Amino acid sequence: MFFATDLDTVTHGIQLAVAPVFLLTAVAGMIGSVAGRLARIIDRARVLEDRIDKASAQDPMAAAYAELKQLRQRGALVNTCIALLTFCAIMIGLTIMALFLGETTEMQIFRIATILFLTGVTCFLLALLCFLTETLIATRMLKFGRQARAVRTD
To answer: What count of other Cβ atoms lies within 10 Å of the Cβ of residue 111?
Structure first.
């Protein structure tokens, strides 16, 4: 395997490989945001589970069970989102490696780099859809919670 020793070739290889790093920054920010949502979901689920455990046998706690079911659904979506974002980051990292190696060696791996990059972007888009779905469920839960409280106070 031949590695380029020409400074211009290596410099161009680095410039080419650095472009996808901006997507990695977006992925890292989104993972942080989604992980925060997961923590809030888990905290709320723990509160509900404690409330259910402490309830008397006569109190069916139907509203708490319904909310807990939605929290599980949201948690599954958030976990899927984090998995897709992680896979996206791996694909983008491999893209960076492929672009750099393709530019600085004799290996013809630009087709592989294209597939890796498109796979990473697809994962990112699917993660965004999971995130959107989870936030829509959270908003619907908020409206439901307000209606349930209004019924109880009447």
So the answer is: 10
pTM of the model: 0.79
How many alpha carbons fall within 13 Å on the CB side of residue 39?
6
Q: For tokens 């920054």, what's the residue?
A: 25
pLDDT at residue 59, rounded to an integer: 76
3 pairs with which residues across the strands? 105
Whether 35 has a pLDDT exceeding 60, the answer reads yes
Which is more confidently placed, 93 or 56? 93
Helix (H, G, I), strand (E, B) or coil at 3: strand
> Within a 13 Å sphere around the CA of 28, how many CA atoms are in the beta-carbon half?
8
Mean pLDDT taken over the chain:
85
How many angstroms separate the Cα of 35 from the Cα of each of 5, 63, 115, 131? 43, 26, 28, 11
Structure tokens at 32: 């942080």
For the chain, the distance separating the N- and C-terminal CA atoms, rounded to the nearest angstrom, is 78
Under a CB-based contact definition with an 8 Å cutoff, are residues 98 and 88 in contact? no
Sign of CA dihedral 73, 75, 79, 81: positive
